[in-house]
Amino acid sequence: MTKKKRAKRGKPKRAVKAVRRKAARSRSRRAAKAGRRVRPAHPVAKGRKRLKKAKKAKRVQKAKKLKKVVDPRVAQAMRQYEEAMRQFNKQSYRRAKAVFEKVVVGYSRELAERARVHLAMCEQRLQRAEPLRLRTADDHYHYAVSQINLGNYDQARTHLEKARKLAPKGDHIFYALASVAALLDEPEEALQHLDLAIKLRPENRYHARHDSDFSYLQDDPRFQELLYPNRLATPGARELYT
């Protein structure tokens, strides 16, 4: 009868680990005698599971910090600040300014300080001279009046001349030209424009009597004759102003 072959049994795991430890110790002893250092053939990372647990705990802690409840007033200020920055980047400075003003009086101090800086930048850029688009006679006239109030008489005269070309029969334009000439101490031109304004609309005579822009011409007999024609028509009245 044939003998049955016995199945080969592997060595137990504990025995294998013991053999490996024994071989590692012998290698280290030989290396120590030879004066060199040898890393073990099968290094075991001790505490690997502990490190994984510690890292996971840190991640959970960070997630909890991020999930903290934010004050709704601060959240609203953040949304407003983001919207203002979008408008600022689009160069819509007027809209950005309006939103930044809300952030400044908001609940968040940090965002309020940032908003103040950008608010000043918006105001600075809005103060720059924007290109004018004056097309009609009224556009030039109203702009000229604003320049008269600012004391820019030369610029006001330039736009009044443009308005006069667009509206040759505009009595208010001639009246404004007379006012500018009087303020620039040019009586001849002032009287000429005022005469045309009165001819186009006689009511301008009464306006000029109480207009402080013509105070320089009060002692001029031509101005008095233009404003008070009936008074100077009486005998001897003309001699009082000559």
Describe this structure in words.
With 242 residues, the chain is an all-alpha fold. Among the domains are: 72-126; 137-240, Alpha Horseshoe (Serine Threonine Protein Phosphatase 5, Tetratricopeptide repeat), CATH 1.25.40. Helices cover 68% and strands 0% of the residues. It contains 13 helices and no strands.
CATH architecture of one domain: Alpha Horseshoe
Beta strand count: 0
Helix content: 55-70%
Overall mean confidence score, pLDDT: 79
Quote the CATH topology of one domain: Serine Threonine Protein Phosphatase 5, Tetratricopeptide repeat
Structural class from helices and strands? Answer: mainly alpha
The CATH homologous superfamily of one domain corresponds to Tetratricopeptide repeat domain
